[in-house]
Structures are given as structure tokens and as C-alpha cells.
Design goal:
The protein has one helix at residues 19-45. The chain is mainly alpha-helical.
């Protein structure tokens, strides 16, 4: 007999993700993109 639902060592265990953490990460990423775009505009205009 073999066990059908044995945890495979090839696949890592999936951790539950904190959605608030992800939202904050995305917001910071979008903010950094906006800041970068502003810097690019300033370089072009000067």
C-alpha cells in the first residue's frame, strides 16, 4: 500500500499571504513609479 496524499519534497508548502501587506507593497511600488516618472520629467525639462 502507498499513501496518496504524502507531502512532496519537490513542492514548498504554500504560506497564507497577508493581503494588507500586499496592498501596502503595491502602493509603495506605485508611489516609487510616480516619483521616478517625476524625476524623468524634471531631467527632460532641465
Amino acid at each position: 500500500m502507498f499513501t496518496l496524499y504524502k507531502a512532496s519534497p519537490k513542492f514548498p508548502k504554500i504560506q497564507p499571504l497577508n493581503t494588507k501587506f500586499i496592498q501596502r507593497y503595491i502602493e509603495k511600488f506605485e508611489e516609487s513609479i510616480r516619483n521616478f516618472e517625476e524625476l524623468q520629467k524634471e531631467r527632460v525639462s532641465s
